[in-house]
Every structure is written in C-alpha cells, then in structure tokens.
C-alpha cells in the first residue's frame, strides 16, 4: 500500500470578495463606459486566499481525515481535488476514478420518482447506467423504500429523501472517494449504517478523503489526519496525534475568530460573553441546573434598525444542541449586552460552544464562535453507567406511589 | 453487502481518464470536447431528465407541443396572410408558416433553455464535477423531442394541402443540423454570459422576438432586396427556414449563397462560443 493516488503540490485558491453578489449587465456596462480599458486590466477587486500553499499526499487504500474550524479551507481543498473548482496556484495529480460526495441528494429532482432520481443522481455522481441498474435493488433495500420507489420525491418526507440520497451515494464505488460532512445529517441509526458501508469501501482498498467536524467519526475511520487552519496545513500525521493537538488548541480557546465574510465585524462586533446567572467563581463554567442567563457583549458602530440575531449551542462533536433566532432587533451605537435567560440548561457535563450572530438589512454584521468554551460541570443526574449517558442531564423526581 | 465489497472497482464508460492533472486555468485555449464524449451517458441523463420533467409538468403534455405552433400558424395565417397579404411563394399560408414555425420554435426554445442551463443547474455544478459543456449540449438536444412531434404534425399539414415532399426533403437533416448548431453556438455565449450577468435571462425573450422578425418566419426572404440578401444570410436561421420550406415543398429556391453565409456564420459563432464557454467554465463554480 505505498502507491500514491493523490499528490497535491502547493495548492492555493484565491477568491474575489463580492463575487457572490449578483453582478448585473448594467453594472458591467457602466464600468465599461466609465473606464473602457479596465476590461483588459483585469480586476482590482479585493481578494482573499481560502487556501494557501497546501501540499498533500494520499496513498492507496488510506482513509485521510481533514479537520479544522469552519472556513479554514477544508471544503475548498476538497472542491479542488474533485475538480469542481480550479486552483489558483499549484497542481495536483490524481490516479484513479474519483467520486465526490459534497452534498446529500446531488441532482435530485422533486418532480421525478425515487426510481428516476436513483438513476439520475447515480449518473451525476459518476455511475454508469449499467452499474446503477445492477445495484438498483440493493440501493432501494438499503434505503428501506421498496414501497415508495415509484412515488415522486416531492411527496417524500425529509427522512425518506435523505435515506434514498444516502443509499445512492453509499453505493458509489470509485477508487477515490471525497466526502464532505454529508454523514452529519440523517438519524443516528441510518448514519451508522452509512458509516458501516463507508468502512466497507475503505476495507475494499479504496481511498477516502473525509472532511468532518465530528472528531469521533474521524477517530473511528481515519488512519491519518491533516489539520487545515486559515487555509494552510497546520499539522499532518497520525489521527491520534493530530486530533489531540487540535482538541487542546480548541480547549485553549484558540478559535477566537470572527467570521471572515465581507464587512463582518466592522459595523458590529461581539466582544465577550459570560454566564451572569447563576454566578460562580468562573463566569464560563456552569455548575448548577438552575435558571441560567448567558450574556453577550456587543459593540455597535453603526446603528442597527431591523437586526436579526441568532444563537446556537454546539457540543464538542460540533453537533447542534439548540438554536434560536429573532428579528427586529434595534441597537444604537455603543456597547450592549444581549442576554438569553433559560429556565435551565440541562445538558450533559462537558465542553460546549456558543455561536452568536447579528445580521442587519440582510447583511452579516458579525458571527462569533464564542470563546472561551462553556464548560458544563453540573452534578450528573444520569445513569451511573457511562454507556447510558445521553445528551441531556435532567433531574427527575421519582415516586412509586404517584397519582 | 458482503459480496459487494469483494467486487473490483467498477471501471465504466463514465470513468474519467486514469490520471487527472489539476492545474490553474490556462487562459483561452483549452478545449476538451473529447471529455464531453466520455461523459455522453451523463448527457443522455440530462436530456432524459429535461424531457421527463417537461412532459410531467405540463398538464396537456404532448398536446401543447402540437397546439403551440398550430395556434401561432393560425394567427400568422389570419394577420400576415389574409389581412396583410404578404406573399408566400405560392404556398398555402398554413404550410408556408408551419414549415417555418417548426424549426423556429425548436430554435427559440433551445436557445432559451441553453441560456438558463448553467444557472439552473448551479447546485449540481457546485457539488460535483463533470465537463460543464454537457449542459448546453443537453439543452439543445432535449428540444429535439418537441421538434420531432412538431415535424410529424408538419408532414401531416403538408399532406393535407396536397403537397408531397420530393427528393429535396433529403436535405432536411442538413438544415436541422444547422438549426441545432446555431442554437448551440449562440446558446454557449448566452449561457456563459448569463452565469456572469444574471439579467441576460430577462433580455433573451426580446432578443428571440427581434430575431424572429429578422428571419423569414412571417414573410418570404424574397422580400429582402437582392443586394442585401448575403447580409441577410449572416442570420443562420434565415438559411435554416428558407431551407426547410424549400426542402419540404419544392417551392422557392434552394438557399445557395444564403446557406453558405449561414454556415460560415455558425462556424464562427460556435467555435467562439466553445472557447468563451470553457473560459467561463473554469470559474463558474465560484460564481453561480
């Protein structure tokens, strides 16, 4: 197993800011009339490097994990390797047939039936008609959709849709499989089924490059891990070594970064957070299952009239625990405290991350992954056996003679 | 499932070449038509999807495909024919108009779907690789199903009026090919432009309408003065429509010089369009 199947050398990708804003013909014509020569001068738009000078080598039969914060460049790297986008610098050589799985249900059309979509999506993902026909029954059985396979997909429930999409994807048999986080959706039971299937793929000698936030998943599947940080390789090596380094960096609160989107953080900026109720020795450690208030301090530099504020809580595996949002937030220039009061936060003890955001007039003002993490160190009300510890930690009042 | 893991990696006609080199875009001169051929099965699936969805969504399905040109023909016959009394090369008005409307409607439908095809498939484009050229190809090919139905109706209409196509009809595939290539050539430019500037799609219906009046759909091209005829021929659809009428009915003249000018024009637009589209292709996933 020493053959190199993916060899990337100094890969870099530069994006132009504002490219996603819908450009109009009129705008282009105006620019042209204002300075007709600018067409030849190329652009002087602001640009940023999503990926910079990343080299990597993946050997045949290896399962390589890519980890890193949101926006670190993992997906960009995967998109370059799967040829969806071209690199700005560097080159890569890939030996073998590549299948990429960046989304669940790529190419699904709501008007078509499950059967038709299986063929369509399979073809788009790179399977031949013959191959799909051969695996068709197996795909349908895997998705547990025998009865509904000739129903239009628009009548499917989300669960059914996801199951069929997964089933098609799981039956891809390329020599090299590039996967982005897709296993993060779907119910746990089905996720496990897919993981099992992926493990089979890996054992069959195929190469897998996997992007995931779920470190447990990475630990289970990968032999080697590359940690991408701010578009560059921060560390590469054995799974244990890299994941541990990544975890301790996260624990040190080294993720104090604000969203890098255009304009973010200049008109408004989240500064700090604390648990203002109940008060403990450390304002970032929650020790009681009691009414809890979490306070975020934000600095507003331009008045916000119709703001949209969102808040989310993630656990250590980047699983979303809870999220909420509200419209019509009005904030004058200056510092403000945004407070969220909860009757209790009955989550199992461990590290958690708050993510807060503020949007104004449809534009992102700031998105902040709050640091430091919140450590929940409440008394456990769970089963004594670890095996039976769930995600909630709720006290229960048990009686034998109740009405 | 156990048996599956033992099977060898499936190498299929869809497979990309064994070794792929990924590099930054090189500029204008990269043409990978061979790759489109390698992905012909995906091309087939895109066409199949478009046709399926189109006939599923329209309530009257096939009937609509026949009714649309028939009703237009009726309107043209009434207004341009009976009221404005435009010449029709000695053909009954219904035949004269229908023979032009069938290729014209194919062209206008294909051009408009080719214009939108990249933007409409943006989700797929940002999630999986395939040669993007497959998309405009699929757009002009899926219009052929409508064309086939319209063409059968057209044969019916000519027979009803007692006109029997002669040997000239053997030229029909050539004119059809010219129509396909025109739609593809212009469609390549428009779909690339539409990916860059989204308002192109709002301009297209007007362009198509103007184009129709610049083509001999509602009138014979003999109305155009002789010395301007070559210029008129630079509109490839003029060659196509004149050709269709002539090949089907034997009336009018075989489009000689007009046809050559049309073919030359199509070649230029098509080759330019291929390069322009591929130029745009390297950045399309970053844009849409």
What does this structure look like?
The complex is a heterodimer of chains A (403) and B (288). Chain A is α/β, with parallel strands linked by helices and 403 residues long. Chain A has 2 domains: 248 residues, P-loop containing nucleotide triphosphate hydrolases (Rossmann fold), CATH 3.40.50.300; 109 residues, Coagulation Factor XIII, Chain A, domain 1. Chain A contains 9 helices and 18 strands. In chain A, strand 16 and strand 17 form a beta hairpin. Chain B is 70% helix and 1% strand. Chain B contains 12 helices and 1 strand. The N terminus of chain B is likely disordered. Chains A and B meet through helix 1, helix 3, strand 4, helix 4 and helix 5 of A and helix 1, strand 1, helix 3, helix 6 and helix 12 of B.
Write the layout of secondary structure elements.
The complex is a heterodimer of chains A (403) and B (288).
Chain A: E1 4-16, H1 25-34, H2 38-41, E2 47-59, E3 63-67, H3 74-81, E4 89-95, E5 98-101, H4 114-125, H5 129-143, H6 158-170, E6 176-180, H7 188-203, E7 207-211, H8 215-221, E8 224-229, E9 232-238, H9 239-251, E10 268-277, E11 285-286, E12 292-300, E13 304-315, E14 320-331, E15 334-342, E16 350-360, E17 363-369, E18 374-376
Parallel strand pairs in A: 3-7, 3-8, 5-6, 6-7, 11-18
Antiparallel strand pairs in A: 1-2, 1-4, 8-9, 10-12, 12-15, 13-14, 13-16, 16-17, 16-18
Helix pairs in contact in A: 4-5, 4-6, 5-6, 6-7
Chain B: H1 2-6, E1 19-22, H2 33-38, H3 40-57, H4 62-83, H5 93-120, H6 122-127, H7 134-160, H8 172-196, H9 200-213, H10 229-233, H11 236-249, H12 257-287
């Amino acid at each position: 197993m020493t053959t190199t199947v993916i060899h990337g050398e100094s890969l870099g990708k530069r994006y132009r800011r504002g490219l996603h804003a819908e450009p109009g013909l009129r705008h282009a014509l105006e620019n042209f009339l204002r300075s007709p020569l600018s067409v030849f001068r190329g652009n002087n738009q602001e640009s940023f490097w999503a990926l910079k000078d990343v080299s990597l080598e993946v050997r045949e039969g290896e399962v390589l994990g890519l980890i890193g914060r949101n926006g670190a460049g993992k997906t960009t790297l995967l998109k370059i390797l799967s040829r969806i986008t071209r690199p700005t610098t560097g080159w890569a050589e890939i030996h073998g047939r590549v299948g990429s799985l960046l989304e669940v249900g790529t190419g699904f059309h709501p008007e078509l039936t499950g059967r038709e979509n299986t063929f369509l999506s399979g073809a788009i993902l790179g399977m031949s008609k013959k191959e799909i026909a051969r695996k068709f029954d197996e795909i349908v059985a895997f998705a547990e959709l025998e009865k509904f396979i000739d129903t239009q997909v628009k009548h499917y429930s989300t669960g059914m849709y996801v199951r069929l999409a997964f089933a098609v994807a799981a039956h891809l048999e390329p020599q090299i499989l590039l996967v982005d986080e897709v296993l993060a959706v779907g119910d746990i039971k089905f996720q496990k089924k897919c993981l099992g299937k992926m493990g089979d793929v890996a054992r069959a000698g195929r190469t897998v490059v996997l992007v995931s936030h779920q470190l447990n998943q990475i630990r289970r599947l990968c032999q080697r891990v590359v940690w991408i940080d701010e578009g560059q390789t921060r560390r590469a090596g054995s799974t244990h070594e890299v994941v541990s380094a990544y975890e301790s960096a996260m624990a040190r609160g080294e993720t104090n970064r604000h969203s890098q989107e255009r304009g973010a953080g200049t008109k408004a900026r989240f500064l700090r957070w604390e648990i203002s109720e109940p008060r403990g020795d450390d304002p970032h450690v929650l020790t009681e299952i009691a009414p809890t208030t979490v306070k975020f301090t934000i600095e507003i530099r331009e008045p916000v009239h119709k703001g949209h504020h969102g808040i989310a809580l993630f656990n250590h595996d980047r699983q979303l625990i809870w999220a909420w949002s509200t419209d019509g937030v009005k904030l004058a220039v200056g510092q403000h405290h945004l407070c969220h009061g909860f009757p209790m936060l009955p989550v199992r003890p461990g590290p958690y991350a708050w993510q807060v955001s503020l949007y104004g007039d449809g534009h992102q003002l700031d998105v902040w992954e709050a640091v430091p993490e919140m450590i929940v160190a409440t008394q456990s009300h769970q089963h004594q056996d670890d095996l039976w510890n769930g995600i909630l930690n709720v006290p229960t009042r048990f009686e034998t003679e109740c009405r | 499932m156990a048996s599956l893991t033992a099977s060898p990696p499936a190498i299929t006609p869809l497979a990309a070449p064994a070794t792929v080199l990924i590099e930054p875009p090189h500029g204008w001169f990269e043409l990978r038509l061979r790759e489109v051929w390698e992905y012909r099965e995906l091309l087939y699936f895109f066409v199949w999807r478009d046709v399926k969805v189109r006939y599923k969504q329209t309530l009257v399905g096939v009937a609509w495909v026949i009714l649309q040109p028939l009703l237009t023909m009726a309107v043209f016959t009434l207004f341009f024919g009976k009221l404005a009394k435009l010449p029709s090369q000695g053909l009954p008005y219904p035949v004269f108009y229908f023979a032009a409307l069938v290729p014209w409607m194919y062209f206008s439908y294909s051009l408009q779907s080719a214009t939108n095809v990249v933007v409409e498939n943006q989700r797929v484009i940002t999630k999986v690789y395939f040669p993007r050229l497959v998309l405009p190809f699929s757009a002009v090919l899926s219009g052929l199903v409508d064309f086939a139905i319209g063409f059968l109706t057209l044969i019916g209409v000519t027979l009803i009026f007692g006109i029997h196509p002669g040997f000239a009809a053997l030229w029909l595939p050539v004119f059809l090919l010219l129509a396909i290539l025109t739609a593809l050539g212009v469609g390549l430019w428009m779909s690339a432009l539409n990916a860059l500037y989204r308002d192109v799609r709002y301009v297209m219906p007007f362009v198509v309408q103007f184009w129709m009046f610049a083509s001999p759909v509602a009138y014979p091209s003999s109305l155009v003065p002789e010395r301007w005829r070559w210029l008129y021929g630079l509109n490839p659809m003029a060659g196509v429509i004149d050709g269709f009428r002539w090949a089907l009915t034997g009336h009018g003249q075989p489009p000689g010089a007009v046809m050559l000018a049309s073919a030359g024009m199509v070649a230029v637009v098509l080759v330019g369009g291929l390069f322009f589209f591929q130029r745009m292709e390297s950045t399309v996933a970053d844009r849409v």
